[in-house]
Amino acid sequence: MKKQILTIVLLLVISTVTNKAQKNMLCQGAHWTEQEGYLKMQEFATKWNDKASWEARAKKIKEHLIKGMQLDKMPKIEGDFNPVINHTRKMDGYIVENIAIESFPGFYITGNLYRPIDESDKHPAILSAHGHWNVPGNIGRFRKDMQLRCASFARMGAIVFAYDMVGYGEAQQVTHEIPIALLLQTWNSKRVLEYLLSRDDVDSNNIGMTGASGGGTQTFIFTALDNRITASAPVCQVSAHFFGGCVCESGMPIHKSKNFQTNNVEIAALCAPRPLLLISDGADWTRNTPRVEFPYIKRVYNVYNAENKVSNVHFVTQRHDYGLSKRKAVYNFFSQYLNLENGHIPYGGDGYIENFVTILPEDSLKVFGKDNIFPKGALKGNEAVIKYLNIK
Q1: How far apart (Å, rounded) are the C-alpha atoms in residues 90 and 291?
Q2: Terminus-to-terminus CA distance in the chain, angstroms?
């Protein structure tokens, strides 16, 4: 009995020490000043000088990401999406449906599918992540700007999966503050991608991903980890000094360890040599992008002779959002690199016109309700999910 007690105490001590060590390795929020971030980029630039040395560093960054978020501890799953699709509506140039797929046994990803009217051929696909907009009536994937861009992508010819962050919208099996939110959201993106690739109507050679703010973080992190994303457009998020202010962005030790340091700029650069569009503005942590973040990433693309595939559109007078001007830039980007038809969006004196999109009320975009009951046997609560995954 005494031996068992001593073992339990020892395990608790080890767990406490491990957790404390992990917390000391977290880089959160504005971890550095803007000047410190700039100087760190200069320091990182001395660690490589050609394709071979960059790829050696890139390998370390990717390994650090996987280990830091414990992605390698997730269950081995192929297929088994068990999709629930309902409320198919034919709109002006696109179709919208409500969808849920199983991320892992007992855990579900909820969202909406936006599809082209033309169902006769394979189509490019886009993963559409959202950020931390959580005002009642204006939440996550239900927001007007989210519906506008997803419908426009679909009218251009893409199949779009707009999905909830954990703890947002219908994804209420855990709270957004769960310590492994970063892991869960990255894994969910992987499952969304693999679901899209499993569809007969998706062209696997043309897969895009985009999102703003926290959705931008999901975009550049998942793009860094999965080369099946062929074009990436993180909006208002890639910063040298800001590491993300939420547990879902920087709540696990992906940026720093005892002998290694990186930041979100280098993670975003792992997209190279695939097409990458950085959208930035003058009123948040991306205000320095044209002078600090973009030149570093462009240097990475240069070692692949692919500088023509990376670009930055900077809106110096604008703020932190995925507004019309930012959407217009992404429409052009995905049209170029995903073989989409931006000519299918109405065009006028000020550019693209999105008035063909019907903004649907939140309740009509939900997968589950009184007529569609949430699956039985679903995991409930943070502790249940962490215990099932056996993540420490």
Answers
A1: 45
A2: 25
Q: Which residues pair with 102 in a beta bridge?
A: 108
d(CA 245, CA 265): 16
Residue 314 pairs in a beta bridge with: 280
65-75 tens-digit pLDDT:
999 999 999 99
pTM: 0.93
| Structural tokens at position 277 | 């569009």
Domains and CATH numbers, the chain: 84-365 (3.40.50.1820)
- Please, which residues bridge with residue 134 across strands? 139
Please state, in angstroms and rounded to a whole number, the distance separating the CA atoms of residues 191 and 187.
6
What whole-number distance in Å separates Cα of residue 309 and Cα of residue 313? 13
Distance, CA of 170 to CA of 368 (rounded, Å):
8
Segment 283-315, tens digit of pLDDT? 999 999 999 999 999 999 999 999 999 999 999
Q: Who's near 54: CB < 8 A, 6+ residues apart?
A: 48, 300, 303
Output the CA torsion sign for 239, 245, 248, 253: positive
Q: How far is CA 20 from CA 14, 68, 244, 358, 387, in A?
A: 10, 14, 20, 49, 20
pLDDT digits (tens, 9 = 90+) for 219-232: 999 999 999 999 99
Strand-strand pairing, 231-235 and 256-257: unpaired
Q: Is the pLDDT of residue 88 over 80?
A: yes
What is the chain's mean pLDDT, rounded? Answer: 93
Q: Any bridge partners for residue 111, and if so which? A: 99, 163
- pLDDT at 22 (0 to 100): 53
Q: At what angle do helices 181-198 and 214-225 cross, to 10 degrees?
A: 60
Tokens of 1: 């009995």
- The alpha helices in the chain, defined as continuous H runs, are 2-24, 34-45, 51-68, 144-156, 181-198, 214-225, 247-250, 264-269, 293-302, 324-337, 382-389
CA dihedral for 74, 75, 79, 83, sign (positive or negative): negative
Report the chain's C-alpha Rg in angstroms.
21
| Three-class DSSP category at 392 | coil
Residue 230 near residue 207, CB atoms below 8 Å: yes
One-letter amino acid for residue 126 of the chain: I
Nearest to 240 by CA among 37, 43, 39: 37
Give the number of other Cβ atoms within 10 Å of residue 103's Cβ: 25
DSSP 8-state secondary structure symbol assigned to residue 99: E
